[in-house]
């Protein structure tokens, strides 16, 4: 396709495959297409990296329940996955999974402030391991697990790992404007590619969770590579030694990356992973 960036081997500096390399991968728009499709080429490339002993870590805004099927589809046998934009980290193997890090916050102050400025927005709080509690139904298929409609005050009554705001008729810019107008503080947030705003505990991001995993693996900081396509990937782009943005990303996200590869529709991730040589 004309204009599609060509990812080059020299973008990887001196990175090579092996257990002292950590590769953090976003899921939607990076591994999976926006229709949830998984290319066989992408699957084979990830398998090659995993088989080399390289530490592959999924890092996503998806909830725990929405990550587990992806682990299965990719055939990953053991490792770590960062869920809910860094608020939840799991360790998994062929016997199952366990949550090793769960970070929560009081969503009440931020949600009351946002509701004051945008009463029409739908609010959702992740009900960890079960699904979501919402103030009104989301569009079909957008949330995984049990979805329970509850009063607003019940929604904000308990500590949360992640809060999602949805307004199907809004643009991403309108969510940015809402954050500015409301003076939101005390939380981390990211505006999604659609009319979607995610909030997590202050200072929590994919980057903070990946750093904890890096320390568990004792991988040098200089041997970290990540790929993603959204504004919730910007912190991990700044954290990694090499950061690759998909061509479907917005300009702000691309500007934070080391390099840009082709879009998910053209298996852009394959160009990145296949360029990492064996030692």
Q: How much helix is in the residues?
A: 25-40%
Sheet of most strands:
8 strands, mixed
Q: List low-pLDDT spans.
A: none
How many runs of DSSP E, i.e. beta strands?
A: 14
- Output the structural class: alpha/beta
Mean pLDDT, to the nearest integer, reads 92
Q: How would you describe the oligomerization state of the chains in this entry?
A: single chain
Which descriptor suits the 3D outline?
Answer: globular
SSE string, helix = H, strand = E?
EHEHEEEHEEEHEHEEHEHEHEH
CATH architecture classification of the largest domain = 3-Layer(aba) Sandwich
CATH superfamily of the largest domain: HAD superfamily/HAD-like
Strand order of the largest sheet: 5-4-3-2-1-12-13-14
Our count of domains comes out at: 2
The CATH first-level class of the largest domain comes to Alpha Beta
Radius of gyration: 18 Å
Output the number of helix runs: 9
Ends apart, CA distance between termini: 32 Å
Strand content: 15-25%
What name is given to the CATH topology of the largest domain?
Rossmann fold
Walk me through this protein's architecture:
This protein has 279 residues and is an alpha/beta fold. The protein has 2 domains: 164 residues, HAD superfamily/HAD-like (Rossmann fold); 94 residues, Hypothetical Protein, Haloacid Dehalogenase-like Hydrolase, Chain: A, domain 2 (2-Layer Sandwich), CATH 3.30.1240. The protein has 9 helices and 14 strands. It has an 8-stranded mixed β-sheet with strand order 5-4-3-2-1-12-13-14, with helices on both faces. A 6-stranded mixed β-sheet has the order 8-7-6-9-11-10, covered by helices on one side. Helix 1 links the parallel strand 1 and strand 2. Helix 3 crosses helix 5. The longest helix is centred in the first third of the chain and has 12 residues. It is globular, with a radius of gyration of 18 Å. The mean pLDDT is 92.
